[in-house]
Write a structure and sequence with these properties.
With about 675 residues, the protein is α/β, with parallel strands linked by helices. About 40% of the residues lie in helices and about 20% in strands. It binds adenosine-5'-diphosphate and magnesium ion (MG).
Length: about 675
């Protein structure tokens, strides 16, 4: 079965090349090249029951056909079947075609119904004349395969037919004991059903991806992914690392200076990572915690342990702004302990960069904070033993591994701590991060007050401005966040400056301040300091303040263009208020009309402040690829599995992976190869 596709009839070098483009090199690859979806040509749909978006077969008699000009030339054909009627619209058509479509002719069409100017229509349907009314429809669903230019569905269907003829030689790597009565069919049945659904298949289940045959394959695919991450993890955790065994004196000194006690969750997570780091193998731990859960201190504790043991630590964030805020936070906390923190970003002057590089290389800096710039070629550490990565979801598995190499010193790998504020349902996290241990800071520091959230149309902006007046009169402070969808800092800054000017004018009795990413760090700091001191009452800001800003007296937040932001980001922003004793509120200003999803997002925020609940809704709205940030990195791309739809399988997947490693370790590699053949770089980097 691992023979090249060229053993099949009619596959020469040219076709083989095309197939290779979509990852098909062997006969097995063909069998695991699964249909993306199905077309249902098994029954004729009454026109009267058709809804926009339905794809299917309709049959009727031509009432009327004409060529019209509506901006361009087109052929419109009116078809009816006694239950209703529909328009066929052609932009490209021949004279013969036009002449053939005469009144009274019976047509059978296939296509997708859309809402048109005069009821439903199908643009460029496939169609043919029906001469005999009893002409049969297809008796099976038509599989549609992922393909590439110049490779027809018909060729793919023919090739899979041939591959299916050899199916009995395909080994099943999941023995019955591993599949463990999940009620799923065997591999052969599953593949046959998915490629060539039999006539009696429950159509709705198959179209939904919930047929047992599909679940069997999704299950196997998830097991393969799980095993590949587990293998990656095993390779890493077998490597040596510097054991960090310390009393925790430095962190105790820091704690003694804090005006509050650690939460139970923070203590537990710090204990977990202390145990990890004391081992002579690299820690690989993901720490999740909602906004404001206090992740920074947990990261600081890990860094101080490394420093106390005589090593260096590196802290990396995905953006300049985030990195800069970490640099300030870490600096403020560590300076009094005599621990020197270096700053490495892409924006440093040549001289500042040279100086920072020397500090890091000579070990004068014990902690280095920065962006990706931390891991460029010319950065050398004196003795790096810990890498902290904030906001994991923006880095892929491969980037993570490249970082690890950076700390490789005489074959010892650094410990890795990954922090994320994106709460992900637990089973999903265990699948997506099967190569990591997993801790949750599931408790917020005490004294946080609930936040009341409202959504207000832009048309009532003046009421919102009055509300600021009121809050300020009561001695409280407010944020006004200007958001633009554009990544451009320049445009964001401009929007913030405009709003700043408007609000300064509208609120003559209020001290208004402005921060954005384009300001000089010194100016930014001075504005922030004045806001913290209560001198500035209203802070107009870009999403710079998404992270790190902490002013307990600020109890009102207005977020402009809230409809354009994602749930996770809105939740992060809102987390800036509700930190003091006053009741806090958040106003989501939106520009109507709201799209369906935007309304759902705003509703979700009004309904709850629980990060996990918000994450669950986010997952439903955006899908796992977006939520995990893996769509961009290419991790977790599945052929058939769907993390959302197949969530209920995930626990069983984990069990099965464990059992397979125990019972048939020799099946693990071929199973991974079968499903992740395009992704062998996992093995290469690790
Ligand atoms: P996040 O988890 O969002 O990164 P931070 O680490 O920025 O949260 O912490 C948010 C705020 O809570 C900071 O001002 C921090 O000083 C404060 N904080 C952290 N831990 C505690 C605690 N145990 N008790 C009270 N405040 C805390
Ligand atoms: Mg943070």
């Amino acid at each position: 079965m691992t023979e090249p596709v060229t053993v099949l009839k009619g596959v020469g070098p040219k076709l083989a090349e095309k197939l290779a483009k979509i990852g098909i090199r062997t006969v097995t690859d063909l069998l695991f090249h699964l249909p993306l979806r199905y077309q249902d040509r098994t029954r004729v749909m009454p026109m009267g029951s058709l809804r926009p978006g339905d794809e299917g077969v309709v049959e009727g008699v031509v009432d009327h056909a004409e060529v019209v000009f509506r901006g361009r030339r087109m052929l419109l054909v009116r078809l009816s079947d006694g239950t209703g009627s529909i328009t066929l619209r052609f932009f490209h058509f021949s004279a013969a075609q036009q002449q053939g479509l005469v009144r009274g002719l019976r047509l059978r069409c296939f296509g997708e119904a859309r809402r048109g100017q005069a009821g439903l229509e199908i643009v460029h349907p496939e169609y043919r004349a029906v001469l005999d009314e009893s002409a049969s429809v297809d008796d099976t669903l038509t599989p549609i395969y992922p393909t590439t230019e110049g490779l027809h569905q018909l060729s793919l269907r023919r090739l899979t037919d041939e591959a299916l003829a050899r199916l009995d030689r395909l080994p099943d790597w999941l023995p019955p004991g591993v599949l463990n009565g999940a009620g799923l069919p065997d591999l052969e049945t599953a593949l046959r059903t998915v490629h060539r659904p039999p006539p009696d298949v429950p159509v709705a289940a198959l179209l939904d991806g919930r047929h047992p045959a599909q679940r069997r394959l999704a299950f196997e695919e998830l097991v393969a992914h799980h095993l590949s991450l587990a293998r990656l993890r095993a390779r890493t955790t077998d490597e040596p690392a510097s054991p960090i065994k310390v009393k925790g004196e430095l962190f105790a000194q820091l704690q003694a200076r804090l005006p509050f006690a650690l939460t139970g969750a923070q203590q537990r997570v710090i204990a977990e990572l202390s145990t990890d780091m004391a081992r002579p193998h690299p820690m690989l731990r993901l720490v999740q915690g909602d906004v404001g859960a206090g992740k920074t201190l947990v990261a600081v504790a890990a860094c101080l342990h490394a420093v106390e043991a005589g090593y260096q630590a590196a802290v990396m964030a995905p953006t300049e702004i985030l990195a800069e805020q970490h640099f300030h936070n870490f600096g403020d906390l560590l300076a009094p302990l005599g621990v020197n923190v270096a700053w490495l970003s892409g924006k440093l002057t040549v001289r500042a960069r040279r100086e920072a590089l020397a500090e890091v290389a000579e070990g004068r800096a014990r902690v280095a904070v920065g962006t990706h710039a931390l891991f460029q070629e010319d950065v050398a550490f004196d003795d790096l033993a810990l890498v902290v990565i904030d906001e994991q979801h923006r880095f892929g598995v491969h980037q993570r591994m490249a970082l690890r190499e950076k700390g490789n010193r005489d074959g010892r790998l650094p410990h890795q701590l990954i922090m994320t504020a994106t709460p992900i349902p637990r089973t999903l996290a265990m699948t997506a991060y099967a190569d990591l241990d997993y801790s949750v800071i599931d408790e917020l520091p005490p004294g946080r007050t609930p936040i009341r959230t409202v959504a207000v149309s832009d048309k009532r902006r003046h009421e919102v401005v009055e509300r600021i007046s009121g809050a300020v009169a009561e001695g409280r402070q407010a944020y006004w966040v200007c958001t633009l969808i554009e990544e451009s800092e320049a445009l964001q800054a401009q929007a913030a400056e405009d709003t700043f000017a408007q609000l300064t004018e509208a609120l003559p009795h209020v001290n208004v301040g402005l921060v954005h990413g384009r300001m000089k760090p010194r100016d930014k700091e001075s504005v922030m300091a004045r806001f913290k001191a209560g001198e500035i009452q209203l802070l107009v800001a870009t999403t710079v303040i998404e992270v790190g800003v902490d002013v307990p007296n600020a109890s009102l937040m207005i977020i402009e263009n809230a409809e354009r932001l994602g749930l996770a980001q809105l939740h992060q922003l809102r987390g800036r208020v509700g930190r003091g004793t006053a009741e806090s509120s958040c106003v989501l200003l939106y520009r109507p009309p709201l799209s369906d999803t935007a309304r759902k997002r705003l509703d979700a925020l009004r309904a709850t402040t629980d990060g996990f609940e918000i994450a669950r809704i986010d997952l439903e709205l955006r899908g796992p690829g977006e939520v995990l940030g893996t769509r961009q990195t290419g991790d977790m791309q599945f052929r058939i599995a769907d993390l959302l739809r197949d969530q209920d399988l995930l626990d069983a997947v984990k069990d099965a992976a464990g059992r397979l490693m125990q019972a048939c370790p020799e099946n693990v590699e071929p199973l991974i190869a079968r499903w992740l053949s395009g992704a062998e770089e996992y093995g290469r980097v690790g």
